[in-house]
C-alpha cells in the first residue's frame, strides 16, 4: 500500500515535471521566434506584405477582429523552411498594414498537428468559456494525426477548439477535443465558422474531399451536419480545402447574396492551387448555387493567391480577404533563406452586378494608402514603346487608365526590370482580350520547372476605359484590373531588385488617360 502510494507520488511528480518541460520548451520556441527580427536586408523579403519572422508559413488562419485588433494566425512550422508539424503562428495589426509578431498561439499536441481553421468572438458566451462577462475568442481548427495517416487510417483529421480570454494572447485547448469526429474520410478539414442570427446557430463550413459540408451548433462544442454542397458543381481539379461562407450586398442595391469560397489544391486557371467561389443563397442549413454547376468563378487568376479566407467580426460588416501568396506547386522550394512565403495584401470584398452576373470584386484595403510616399502624375498621352516611371523605389503602387478606342497596340502595360536583363511584364493583350503577367524572364526560376509562366485572365468589362491598379513589392505584384475584377497575384525572385518601371506599348500605341504612381514607404 505504502509502496503503491510512493509509486503514485512518483507518477504525479514525473507528470508535473514533464508538463513543465513542455511549457518551458514552448517558451523557448517562442523566444527563438521572437529573437529573429524581420530585416529588409534579406533578399526577396517583402517590404509591405506580411511574412513570418522565420520558418515556414502557408495558409492564413483564424482571422478575427477583436477590440481594435485584426488577428492573423497562420499555418506555421517554426523549425524549418519547409512544411512540417503545423502550429498557428500569430500576428496582430490595428490597420491591416503594420503587423506585430506575437508568440505562437497553438502548438501540435497528442491529438495531432494544428491545421487550418477559423476563429470567432463568442459574444453571447454560448460555449461557456467566457469569464466575468468577457466574451471568449474561440478558435476552431483541424487536428491532423500524422501517425494515424502513416498507419494507413482514413480518419486522421478531426476538428478541435481552443479559447482565449486575453485578447488572443494565450489559448487553452478544450479538454474534450475533438468536437467533430471523422466519418472515415481522408480529407476532412479547414472549418470556417460564422454566427447565423435567424436561427441563432453557429454555422460551420468544412472541406470534405470533393464537397463542402455544413454543420450547425448552439455552443461551438456539439455539431450536427445539416447539408452538403458541391460534388457536381464548380472546379474539381484538386481536393477542396479552406472554405469560407458569408453574405454580401450587391454594390448600389439592397440585394444580399451568399458567397461560398472554396480553395482547390490543383486545377486553378493558371495551374496548381487557387481559389474558386460560388454565389447563391443560404438558409442556415443549405447553400444553393445561383449559377450553372459548370460555371467557374475564380477569385484570382494569378498563380499565387491560395487558401484566401476572410476576417470574422470586422466592423461595419466589412469583408476582408487575405491569401497565402504562393502555390503548392513550388511553395517549398522558392529561393528565400530564413523564411518561406508571405500573404497577399488584404482586400475588401464587394459584389458587383456585371453583364456576366453577380461577381466578387476585390479592392486593396483603404488603409494601404498610409504607405503612399512621393507621387508622380502622368498626364494623358499616347504611349509608344516605353515611358519611364520616375520612381526607383522597389515598392510601388501604380494606377493607370487607358482609352481602348484610341489605342491600337497589341499589348500594353507595365514592365519592371533590373540591370541584369530580368523583367516582369504586367499588361493587357488587345488581341486575345486578356490581362497577363509574364514572369518567364523574372530572375531565379531553376528551382522548379512549374515556376516560369505567363499567366492570363479574361477581361470581363467591355468598357472602353481599361484600368490597371498595381501593388508591387520586392517579390510580388498584384494586379487589380477594371476596379477589382479580374485580379492576378504573382510572385517572382529577381537576382537584383526591380528598380525600373516603364509603361509600355507594343505593336502600336496605347492611349493613356491618366497615370498615378506612388513610392510605397
Ligand atoms: C491548404 C492546406 C489545408 C490544411 C493546411 C495544412 O494549403 O492543405 O487544407 O489545413 O494546408 O498546412
Task: Give a written overview of the molecule.
The chain has two domains: 3-38 and 60-364, Tachylectin-2, Chain A (5 Propeller); 366-520, Jelly Rolls, CATH 2.60.120.560. The chain is mostly beta strands. The strands form six sheets. Strands 22, 23, 24, 25, 26, 27, 28, 29, 30, 31 and 32 form an eleven-stranded antiparallel beta sheet that branches. A five-stranded mixed beta sheet has the order 4-3-2-1-19, covered by helices on one side. It has two helices and 32 strands. The structure holds beta-D-fructofuranose (FRU).
Helix/strand layout:
Layout (H helix, E strand, L loop, with lengths): L1 H34 L19 E12 L2 E9 L9 E7 L6 E7 L6 E9 L15 E8 L1 H5 L6 E8 L7 E2 L14 E9 L4 E8 L2 E7 L6 E6 L10 E10 L6 E9 L9 E9 L4 E3 L16 E5 L9 E5 L14 E2 L6 E8 L2 E8 L7 E7 L2 E8 L7 E8 L7 E7 L5 E7 L4 E5 L15 E5 L6 E9 L2 E6 L5 E5 L8 E21 L1
Bound molecules: beta-D-fructofuranose (FRU).
Summarize the structure.
The protein has two helices and 32 strands. With 521 residues, it is mainly beta.
Amino acid at each position: 500500500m505504502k509502496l503503491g502510494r510512493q509509486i503514485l507520488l512518483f507518477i504525479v511528480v514525473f507528470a508535473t515535471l514533464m508538463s513543465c518541460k513542455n511549457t518551458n520548451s514552448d517558451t523557448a520556441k517562442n523566444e527563438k521566434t521572437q529573437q529573429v527580427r524581420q530585416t529588409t536586408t534579406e533578399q526577396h523579403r517583402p517590404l509591405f506584405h506580411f511574412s513570418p519572422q522565420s520558418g515556414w508559413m502557408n495558409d492564413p488562419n483564424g482571422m478575427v477582429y477583436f477590440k481594435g485588433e485584426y488577428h492573423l494566425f497562420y499555418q506555421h512550422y517554426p523549425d524549418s523552411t519547409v512544411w512540417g508539424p503545423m502550429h498557428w503562428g500569430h500576428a496582430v495589426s490595428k490597420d491591416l498594414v503594420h503587423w506585430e509578431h506575437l508568440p505562437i498561439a497553438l502548438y501540435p499536441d497528442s491529438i495531432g498537428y494544428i491545421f487550418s481553421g477559423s476563429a470567432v468572438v463568442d459574444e453571447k458566451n454560448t460555449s461557456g468559456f467566457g469569464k466575468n462577462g468577457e466574451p471568449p475568442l474561440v478558435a476552431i481548427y483541424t487536428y491532423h494525426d500524422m501517425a494515424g495517416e502513416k498507419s494507413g487510417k482514413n480518419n486522421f483529421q478531426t476538428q478541435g477548439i481552443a479559447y482565449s480570454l486575453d485578447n488572443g494572447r494565450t489559448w487553452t485547448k478544450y479538454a474534450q477535443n475533438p468536437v467533430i469526429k471523422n466519418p472515415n474520410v481522408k480529407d476532412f478539414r479547414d472549418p470556417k465558422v460564422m454566427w447565423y442570427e435567424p436561427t441563432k446557430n453557429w454555422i460551420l463550413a468544412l472541406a470534405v474531399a470533393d464537397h463542402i459540408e455544413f454543420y450547425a451548433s448552439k455552443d461551438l462544442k456539439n455539431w450536427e451536419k445539416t447539408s452538403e454542397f458541391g460534388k457536381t458543381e464548380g472546379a474539381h481539379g484538386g481536393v477542396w480545402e479552406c472554405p469560407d461562407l458569408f453574405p454580401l450586398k450587391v454594390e448600389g442595391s439592397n440585394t444580399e447574396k451568399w458567397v461560398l469560397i472554396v480553395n482547390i489544391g490543383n486545377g486553378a486557371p493558371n495551374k496548381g492551387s487557387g481559389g474558386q467561389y460560388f454565389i447563391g443563397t443560404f438558409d442556415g442549413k443549405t447553400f444553393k448555387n445561383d449559377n450553372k454547376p459548370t460555371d467557374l468563378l475564380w477569385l484570382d487568376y494569378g498563380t499565387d493567391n491560395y487558401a484566401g479566407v476572410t476576417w470574422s467580426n470586422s466592423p461595419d460588416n466589412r469583408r476582408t480577404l487575405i491569401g497565402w501568396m504562393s502555390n503548392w506547386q513550388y511553395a517549398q522550394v522558392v529561393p528565400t533563406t530564413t523564411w518561406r512565403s508571405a500573404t497577399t495584401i488584404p482586400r475588401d470584398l464587394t459584389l458587383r452586378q456585371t453583364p456576366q452576373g453577380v461577381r466578387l470584386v476585390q479592392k486593396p484595403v483603404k488603409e494601404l494608402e498610409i504607405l503612399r510616399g512621393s507621387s508622380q502624375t502622368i498626364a494623358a498621352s499616347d504611349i509608344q514603346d516605353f515611358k519611364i516611371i520616375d520612381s526607383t523605389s522597389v515598392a510601388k503602387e501604380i494606377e493607370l487608365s487607358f482609352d481602348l478606342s484610341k489605342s491600337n497596340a497589341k499589348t500594353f502595360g507595365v514592365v519592371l526590370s533590373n540591370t541584369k536583363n530580368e523583367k516582369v511584364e504586367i499588361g493587357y493583350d488587345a488581341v486575345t482580350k486578356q490581362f497577363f503577367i509574364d514572369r518567364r524572364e523574372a530572375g531565379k526560376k531553376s528551382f522548379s520547372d512549374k515556376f516560369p509562366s505567363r499567366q492570363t485572365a479574361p477581361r470581363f468589362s467591355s468598357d472602353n476605359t481599361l484600368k490597371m491598379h498595381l501593388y508591387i513589392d520586392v517579390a510580388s505584384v498584384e494586379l487589380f484590373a477594371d476596379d477589382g475584377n479580374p485580379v492576378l497575384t504573382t510572385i517572382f525572385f529577381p537576382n537584383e531588385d526591380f528598380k525600373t518601371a516603364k509603361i509600355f506599348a507594343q505593336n502600336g500605341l496605347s492611349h493613356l488617360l491618366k497615370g498615378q504612381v506612388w513610392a510605397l514607404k
